[in-house]
UniProtKB/TrEMBL annotation:
It holds the Pfam family NMO. Keywords: Flavoprotein, FMN, Monooxygenase, Oxidoreductase. PANTHER family: 2-NITROPROPANE DIOXYGENASE, 2-NITROPROPANE DIOXYGENASE-LIKE PROTEIN. InterPro entries: Aldolase_TIM (IPR013785), NMO (IPR004136). It comes from the Bacteria. This is Nitronate monooxygenase. GO terms for molecular function: nitronate monooxygenase activity.
Amino acid sequence: MNRLIQHTGSRYPIIQAPMGWIARSQLASAVCEAGGMGIIETSSGEIDNCKNEILAMSDLTNKPFGVNLPLLFLKDDSMVNFCVDAGVKFVTTSAGDPTKYISVLKDAGITVYHAVPSLDGAIKAINAGVDGLVVEGTEGGGFKSPVEVGLLVLIQSIRQNSDIPIIAAGGIVDGSGMAAVFAAGADGIQMGTRFVSSKESPVHTNFKNKILESNIDGTLMLNKSSKPVIRALKSNLTNSIEKKGIMDMADFMKIQELYFEGNMEAAPALSGQSVGLIHEIKTVKQIIDEIIIEFNQVCNEMGKYKF
Ligand SMILES: Cc1cc2nc3c(=O)[nH]c(=O)nc-3n(C[C@H](O)[C@H](O)[C@H](O)COP(=O)(O)O)c2cc1C
């Protein structure tokens, strides 16, 4: 049996990415109902709202779901304790030292995957005792490593060093992308940009339409000489940040105006290169069903090759 499914209890090894303000119960429960694993974000820092979103999940789905804990941004252990008390079974950790809460989470019987953008990060997480890794290639949307390594190379380099379960993230939107990362050694996939553009995603139509209109060169890596490095859609704002070479964090503060009011110049619109592969707004169920059908077809086709 697929190792990620064993860990999540979901029907398919497909994870919805944690995304500040976006990865909440409306989207996450749709993913769970469609057979994937929905993840509730806590990176927005809106701890009380996120706790309520976690509680809301049990009203919306009886399928398993997970929570993301961005370690650097947690002010204290209240969110960790809340996950333990709420009976959360699957946690992804990111942005920070994977040893920080690993024993509390593992002692509570929670499966922990840590997000890494590099081989070094993977080895540290493995040594910290995580159950699996979310391996994030440079193709993906959101906060990125300044060292730009593509997903397939990253998975293969980690596979040369470890057999730990891997969720592949970055640039995947369909069954052929899923088959490609499985061929490289992944056990599952995580998608952000594809789910942002789904019907159930809470973001404004302007953001979804901009994803549909964009090509594979429609994103920029910004703030490369500082922190955080991000990948976001091209816009007047992001073009000017790229020209300056540095991002003022104030540029980021109006992200909710972009997400929910549709002002595409209010902040950088976090998105991956996969925007160029997304041409239609689909329901989460349609996205997941089509991925599984195509994944099975591609695997059958590939099985015919004998050189
Ligand atoms: C709009 C958006 C917001 C994101 N916000 C977060 C976040 O808050 N925390 C996080 O760990 N990753 C975040 N990410 C990165 C995703 O977790 C994931 O690694 C990435 O989306 C995968 O690549 P893809 O966008 O090509 O699917 C975000 C991505 C997007 C597109």
